[in-house]
# Entry
Amino acid sequence: MTPLSDVTRAGAWLQAARALLDKGDRIYNLILEIQQPSSATTTSRAIEKQVDDFLRAHGCQPNHTVAETIFPATEYARGGLDAVLAYPTTVYPVIKPEPANRWGTYALRITERKCSDGSTFKPLEFLIAKLRKQLALQGTKRAAYELDPMDEPLDLKLYEADVDRNNAVAGQCLSHLSFKLGPNHELYLTALYRYQWFVQKALGNLLGLARLQSCIAREIGVPVGPLVCHATLAVLEDKKVQKVPWNPADLPKLIESCEQCMAAAETGEVAA
# Structure
């Protein structure tokens, strides 16, 4: 197990990327804690931009695009929660033809599910209503909000056995989301990934999870707590699964450049 912690998403990602590079590209049970997932600094933004520029230069999805597959922040900014809940009919039909979306998106699975009787169900809406109800009660239950991969739709469900059972690596990788209310009613989020690519996806994953956490906290009127992301298998890249469009020397250069940016901030210098 490798636990790492940082104040910002970019700082935690950079620690993980360095650990993966040093340990041979893969780590089992890599656990990141982001202490302030909604915050960003000049340095963290600079690191995120470097990663974004790298991904764009190699024809990969930028962090924002990856994040939108977890939580449609663009829709939330335009029309609030109602626009998010309309995602299955407004956004998903447009992006469904993309090969990467052939199994669906996490945003789809948290905004619409089918029950065993054939009716539809909005897990995110129900979760928010459940949290509001519990906050109104004296002696709030702190650990009653699960997005479980297997349970009936009382929980937000991300793993779908009939769709995902044949996926070895590609497709659905985020399996479980767990929400907790802390001692001051701050909202904690823990995400479990069965497999996570740290160059192509992880920084965007953290952004999307932080936006989802922030949305729910805002809707129920509580502060945002820490975000924990547990990858049971984390890799920088996996050439056996996906052909990568960069050279072997490119990743160390990217990580070293991000580290130089972080070091310059810590010493008060300006990175070249």
Remarks:
- The first strand starts at residue 2 and ends at 6.
- DSSP finds eleven helices and nine strands in the chain.
- The longest helix spans residues 202-220.
